[in-house]
Amino acid sequence: MEFLLSTAIGLLTAAGVYLALRARTWPVVLGLTMLSYATNLFLFATGRLVLNQPPVISPDVVAYTDPLPQALVLTAIVISFGMTAVIVVMALRSFLESGSDHVDGQDKPVPAENRETTEGRA
Amino acid sequence: MNHWIIAPIVLPAIMAPILLMGARHDMVLARIFSIASTVALLGIALALTAMVSDGTILTYALGNWVAPFGIVLVADRLSVMMLVLTAVLALAVLFFAIDGSDREGRHFHALYQFQLMGINGAFLTGDFFNLFVFFEVLLIASYGLMVHGGGPARVKAGVQYVAINLVGSTLFLISVGMIYSVTGTLNMADLAVKVPHIPAGDQALLQAGALLLLLVFCVKAALIPVHFWLPGTYANAPAAVAALFAIMTKVGAYCVIRLYILAFGADAGAATWLAAPWLLPAALLTLVLGMTGVLAARRLGQLAGFAVIGSMGLLLTSVALFTPIALSAALYYLLHSTLAGAVLFLIADLVARRRPGHEDGLSVAPGFTQLKLLAGSFFIAAIAATGMPPLSGFIGKLLMLDAALDSVHAAVIWTLVLGTSLIAIIGFGRAGSTLFWKSTGEPGSFPEHAQSNSLSLIAIGLLLAGCVALTLFAGPLTTYLDATAEQVFATHQYIEAVLGNTVLPGGLL
């Protein structure tokens, strides 16, 4: 269990860091998403890994799981979801305005007529 | 319980949706509401100042949950002073924005209020996961403001800004998780109680978490090695937004001051003064890099960005000494550098609007209207930003150098501060003479959208008047700041105010 979780966090972080350092915006977005998944799992583990225990106090239970990291993860998921949506929109807008999805814009732009626009779509 | 404490967060949080829904088609209405809200924020901040100026620390338990378990807001001298500074800056910048640049894109005023909500929340909260949430509030508003008006260069810089801050948020969460896993608390005061009692086996995890958190705050404060996002972002953002962002770097500085004196300060056991050995070299390098950047900048906006980086380096150099007297000097410089940094961006924008084809590039171009007025403003702003007498920058630097005398690193700090001042003076002098003295001849054509700019000039005047006021009232102000710094270092007052009688010896561990 511990090994599985830590490996998963490690792999997600490594992939996330690698992708976030790429030169195109789409891999960067994917990398940031993976980093946020790794963070969510990590936060979950900070309350220690406990199986089949309730988070809420009840008289006939002796061991509990920590409820706080679960609340933190929930907040983190909501926020990272919103932020991912923002960066996707901004990356798309950046490509449409400059004709290049290179993060520094140091690339030959795609001709304007070959760019698909998002206008007129639902 | 004093409900005024939460007003600086609730007021913009209510105004922003009203602006978004009610006033989205009516710019005049939006401007009136936005100004009214910001004036009210200033009033509230001043009222809070009156409440805390005698040294009381006000706390507000959200939902009436007792401190270590619920989220608390804490208003002491330091946080209320930051609220006043935010409100003053926001009001002046808003005058600049309603002079036309708020029409360039949509929802400027709503985003502006959300931005103020996030900044005020970050200054008030006493819980570091809540601090993360307010960071995200201010960041997501800043993403919107950053690309206000659009354009390829601006959106490109915006994508980079979002990406670096998403990585920053990820690191923030990881460090919060590490600290929580060891201490079992998210409340800053409770953290300060528990850190000294952490066993040696958990110290590595705790200190790694705390230093990762320092890195996150350094991303916000634009310190080496995570400073690189700032010049591109600020130079490409709309001028009003860049000027408001001058307070965002101070949010990072505020968090460093608050957390690393309270929880990892004098009484932190094995983690005593954890931040100091990392912060001081980083701050000094930032100072050198920022001021060298001033000399190397090719555009006035870039120059202002590097001046902000340099001033953050100087500010955090003084903070990194971690003595009350140095902190008091740093706080004075913080007030000054926020106003001086903001006004540089506004002047750069007015210059850029008047030089079609040249924009704010440091090149010789035909003269333009109001050249002498802008040259005069730039001259005053440059005196303030480089720290020459008689303005507030000089007093700030003097106080810092004086405070650094007791430090073992005094020689290094003095050399670098004085050396970089000279570099900055040369940089500003070169920029000013190229832009204003060499640009002679017929006034160039005056672009239409820059016709009415009396409000912009009032905004610049207000900020410069702020610098002058800081100079004139330096005496009473430094007395107040000394008291503020002492309160920050008297951490037991903060802990008692937040936790009251619920403190258990050794914490709940």
Task: For this entry, give a set of tags.
heterodimer; A: 122 residues; mainly alpha; Helix Hairpins; elongated; B: 509 residues; two-stranded antiparallel ribbon; 19 helices; 2 strands; 72% helix; disordered C terminus
Structure description:
The complex is a heterodimer of chains A (122) and B (509). Chain A is an all-alpha fold and 122 residues long. Helices cover 58% and strands 0% of the residues of chain A. Chain A has helices at 2-20, 25-45, 68-98. Chain B has a domain at 275-472. Chain B is built from 19 helices and two strands. In chain B, strands 1-2 form a two-stranded antiparallel sheet. Classes of the chains: A mainly alpha (122), B mainly alpha (509). At the A-B interface, helix 2 and helix 3 of A face helix 5 and helix 6 of B.
What does the secondary structure layout of this molecule look like, with pairings?
The complex is a heterodimer of chains A (122) and B (509).
Chain A (H helix, E strand, L loop, with lengths): L1 H19 L4 H21 L22 H31 L24
Helix pairs in contact in A: 1-2, 2-3
Chain B lengths: L6 H15 L5 H26 L5 E4 L10 E4 L1 H21 L10 H17 L3 H19 L5 H32 L4 H7 L5 H22 L7 H8 L2 H24 L13 H21 L3 H20 L4 H31 L16 H16 L5 H13 L5 H28 L16 H19 L1 H16 L1 H9 L10
Helix pairs in contact in B: 1-2, 1-4, 2-3, 2-4, 3-4, 3-10, 3-13, 3-17, 4-5, 5-6, 6-8, 6-9, 7-19, 8-10, 9-10, 9-12, 10-12, 10-13, 11-12, 11-16, 12-13, 12-16, 13-14, 13-15, 13-17, 13-18, 14-16, 14-17
The arrangement of helices and strands of chain A along the chain is HHH
Q: What global shape of chain A is seen?
A: elongated
Major sheet of chain A: size, sense and barrel closure?
Answer: none
State the helix count of chain B: 19
Quaternary state of this entry equals: heterodimer
Largest interface: A-B, 34 and 29 residues
Helix count of chain A, per DSSP?
A: 3
Share of helical residues of chain A: 55-70%
Mean pLDDT of chain B comes to 90
Q: Strand percentage of chain A, roughly?
A: under 5%
> Judging by the overall fold, what is the CATH architecture of chain A?
Orthogonal Bundle
Strand order of the largest sheet of chain B: 1-2
Based on Cα principal axes, name the global outline of chain B. globular
